Amino acid sequence: MGIVAPALPAFAASFDVGVTAASFVISAFAFMRLAFAPVSGKLVSRFGERPLYVWGILIVAASTSACAFAESYWQLLVFRALGGTGSTMFTVSVVALLVRLAPPHLRGRASGLWATSFLLGNISGPIIGGFMVGFSLRLPFLTYGATLFIAAMVGWLMLRKSTLAAPDRDNTVPPLTVRQALHHRAYQASLLSNFSNGWAVYGVRVALVPLFVVEALRSTQAMAGVALSVFAVGNAAVLMISGRISDQRGRKPMVFGGLTISALGSAALGFSDSVPWLLACSLIAGVGAGLLNPAQNAAVADVVGAKGKGGPVLATFQMAADVGAIPDRGRHRGRGVVPDGLRRHRPDQRARAAGVAARPRDEVRGEGVGPGERGGGGRPPRRRP
């Protein structure tokens, strides 16, 4: 996921759309995850985690690869949205499997280990993706799709004969329903905290930080990738520690502390006026999210129980983050942002960004050059006293 984060807003903007439309490409993925989550929960309960795990990865791989060949904004939007269905199949099935396999006294650490492995990709992904953007906005999507096909094959090979991953056929224990789970205050609190985390991390941060770095700080898309990676580093640095403490001291301290630190780091991000300040705020917010994640997942696992028969319950928990990942988009005057690297792309890509990449640099950067202020023959714009 991290490898396309620096490229996705700029790739959408290269089709000559505004920032709101470019950000909606990210929201569409989250919206489809949200809409398909209840179906994924029922499918996991019916067919088991193993087949849903593999099929989910394959769907995301195919849809992401298709994004690389999008010839219009609407094609990119549809392909990206379709990937959300596979993504929710994968995440619900994986969490359900972890809940079923991890004993209660190790759930925090098991969740922290899984989240750490996930974030190792998020640490390296944005840096690699930011580097790839300099060559082609399509290259990160092709790389993402290829690695997912490999991951699906590896997962299938490792799980196909596993007795631990086999579907639980014990019908004496009825599955936990969402209505029953909502009677637990821990589950209610987990839904609220997951919504907050999804809004701040997966919605606002991923959608707007790359654009904020380019427009407000006048830096590069590669630096946007570094900022996202710094957030992931802070996150990964404390996941295992948080999981261990949540197993020993309880879930509440880590959830409360993580939300508080994440809120401070996210709020300070809005006051960033330099790249070092941006990176420092990203690190703090990452630490907060890292403290929150294992304890939050372990709390939901405690509610579901050792049998793990709660696909819809886990899907609803996941939906809370996806609702948060569809943030309000402020209106933005002017056209989309196209990085300087786009000018080195193929002529057909430059043509799609007509009115942006082809305009003078000071116009693209919004320095107040309006119609009629630039005369013929390359004269500089008229300046008022």
UniProtKB/TrEMBL annotation:
Organism: Saccharopolyspora erythraea (strain ATCC 11635 / DSM 40517 / JCM 4748 / NBRC 13426 / NCIMB 8594 / NRRL 2338)
Keyword terms, alphabetized: Cell membrane, Membrane, Transmembrane, Transmembrane helix
Subcellular location: Cell membrane
TM region positions: 6-31, 52-71, 77-101, 113-135, 141-159, 199-217, 223-242, 254-271, 277-295
Name of this chain's protein: MFS superfamily, multidrug transport protein
PANTHER family: CHLORAMPHENICOL EFFLUX PUMP RV0191, PURINE EFFLUX PUMP PBUE
Molecular function via GO: transmembrane transporter activity
Principal location listed in the UniProt entry: membrane
Membrane topology: Multi-pass membrane protein
